[in-house]
Amino acid sequence: MTEIAVVETVASLRAAVAGWHAAGEKVALVPTMGALHSGHIALVKEGQKHARRTVVSIFVNPTQFAPHEDFKKYPRTFDTDRAMLEEAGTDAIFFPPVEAMYPPGYATRVLLLGPAAAGLEDRFRPTHFEGVATVCCKLFTQSRADYAVFGEKDYQQLKVVTRMADDLDLGIEIVPLATIREADGLAMSSRNRYLSIEERERAPVLHRAMQALATRIRNRDDLFRAVSEAQSEIVSAGFELDYLEARHAESLAPVTSLADGPIRLLLAARLGGTRLIDNIAV
């Protein structure tokens, strides 16, 4: 197994990508914050279906964390991450320090509307998507990759980044990948490691409740009643519910019935000290 290249500067990243492009090879970027799991590796494998070369960025982006959130305690597991990426056949890791991404005097951010202002994650994390879009815009232009692969688990994020790349003519194709789940349905996430044993056993309730709700909507039950009863079920199971909503799958606008579709169910809930998000298609 060839040792993976680790680059820490934009110049080094661009030189590597330029060499691949000169050889006629396409490049896929997988943006991450590290603490990798098999869901991330699935993103790498998806990138390898589209491009001869894959680059994974590992950067815990401070601008997408609010002051009260877990930036400092976000897991940093670079050695383990590198071993996983080598095993997966990744060509390079882009591992920049904060000062390379946000040097002294940095003063530019991406202003967002559309799916970033849908009243979902943005209602609870009002500065989050601005930070995500800004760092993704930088990563896209820094890498000059042909593709960028994002999971559907962070569905609103996927729609925000796709809209931004199109609107700003960034010349990169956003490739979505269906949510990777544990055997019991829980969406894979780096934050799942924060769950206690008892909480981990309870967490799949969220996916089951959404599946049941999707079935009711497909069967043309009253949408508002079905959503309300699913919300009550989740709260009764011990979760603190931020939202469970039925939205248009592309615009994320509110819907009133199946006729307004395609519909996506989106959810965020807290279990103990861990915030879980998920979504499914109806």
TrEMBL record:
Binding site residues for beta-alanine? Q64
What Pfam families does its record include?
Answer: Pantoate_ligase
> GO:BP terms for this protein?
pantothenate biosynthetic process
Q: Which GO terms describe its cellular component?
A: cytosol
* Positions of the catalytic residues: H40
Tell whether Iron is among the UniProt keywords. no
Q: Which InterPro entries match?
A: Pantoate_ligase (IPR003721), Pantoate_ligase_C (IPR042176), Rossmann-like_a/b/a_fold (IPR014729)
For this protein, what is the EC number? 6.3.2.1
Q: Which reaction does it catalyse?
A: (R)-pantoate + beta-alanine + ATP = (R)-pantothenate + AMP + diphosphate + H(+)
The record, for CDD domains, names: PanC
Which SUPFAM superfamilies does the record associate with it? Nucleotidylyl transferase (SSF52374)
One further remark on this entry is: The reaction proceeds by a bi uni uni bi ping pong mechanism.
**What function is annotated for this protein?**
Catalyzes the condensation of pantoate with beta-alanine in an ATP-dependent reaction via a pantoyl-adenylate intermediate.
This protein is called what? Pantothenate synthetase
